[in-house]
Design brief:
2 domains, 9 helices, Rna Polymerase Sigma Factor, Chain: A, Arc Repressor Mutant, subunit A, mainly alpha, 181 residues
């Protein structure tokens, strides 16, 4: 396949080989996105599959204005957000007393962790905190955008980010990493 446009065109013609190429090309990166939002790798795999079902069903909407990977990423993030919103609605229990310290995390402290360890720390956050943390810190959305996506206020988004960072700091301290390193 020469270009993403050709690949999309062949996928729209229901060429299974092209659909498999598209999946194999983007699945590893998209799985990483899903893993940041999911509770575990099984849920992330479900999100990945659900996201690719949406990708293939909406592929005719891809206009080619931006990168195909960026377009697929937005679908995966939206799929993951929907998952988190469902989790938040079914699990309203959040222990707010755990988040009582200042919320800055040193880049040096985070660089000591492996990717798997960092994902584990993030995955242990309550779903609302984890979702806001991912959207703000990793995906780069503003608090206004996050509030609109999740149906919360901007202040709630800011509070969730603050508390997520505080919990991450607490977890890092528990494993012997402080933000002064």
């Amino acid at each position: 396949m020469d270009t993403d446009r050709e690949l999309v065109s062949r996928c729209l013609q229901r060429e299974s080989a092209s659909q498999e190429i598209l999946y194999r090309r983007f699945a590893p990166v998209m799985f990483g996105i899903c893993l940041r939002y999911a509770n575990n790798s099984y849920d992330a795999q479900d999100l990945l599959q659900e996201g690719f079902i949406r990708v293939f069903s909406k592929l005719h909407h891809y206009r080619g204005d931006g990168s195909l990977e960026g377009w697929i990423r937005r679908i995966m993030v939206t799929t993951s957000i929907n998952y988190c919103v469902r989790k938040i609605k079914t699990n309203r229990e959040v222990d707010l007393t755990e988040a009582n310290s200042a919320a800055t995390i040193s880049e040096d402290a985070l660089s000591i962790l492996t990717t798997a360890e960092l994902l584990g720390v993030i995955r242990d956050l309550p779903v609302g905190f984890r979702t806001v943390f991912n959207l703000f810190v990793i995906e780069g959305y503003s608090h206004r955008q996050i509030a609109e996506m999740l149906g919360i206020t901007e202040n709630t988004s800011k509070t969730h980010l603050y508390r997520a960072k505080a919990l991450i700091r607490k977890k890092l301290a528990a494993i012997g990493i402080n933000d002064k390193q």
